[in-house]
């Protein structure tokens, strides 16, 4: 039996000077496959820092994705002949 799990925690913080921070930490996993390369647990941490200007009319934001560098860039698919791996 194959099982896919996906969960996340999100944190929003507002700071003095119109700064705002948002962080998301989560895990994506697959289990139950015969091949070890198909069974994964990827920890994902995304964060961004934003500051608003001109009474909220302008927003500057810097974003970091996958800060732990665990998200795989290869997508595995099954077809009739077997497994294939494609870079995403």
Topology (elements, then pairings):
Layout lengths: L2 E13 L3 E13 L8 E14 L4 E7 L9 E6 L2 E6 L1
Antiparallel strand pairs: 1-2, 2-3, 3-4, 5-6
The assigned structural class equals mainly beta
Shape: elongated
The total count of helices amounts to 0
Would you list the SSEs in sequence order as H and E?
EEEEEE
What is the residue-mean pLDDT, rounded to a whole number?
Answer: 84
Q: What topology, given as strand order, has the largest sheet?
A: 1-2-3-4
Computed over alpha carbons, the radius of gyration is 19 Å
* Low-confidence runs of at least 5 consecutive residues: none
Kindly, what is the distance between the CA atoms of the first and last residues, rounded to a whole number of angstroms? 26 Å
Helix content: under 10%
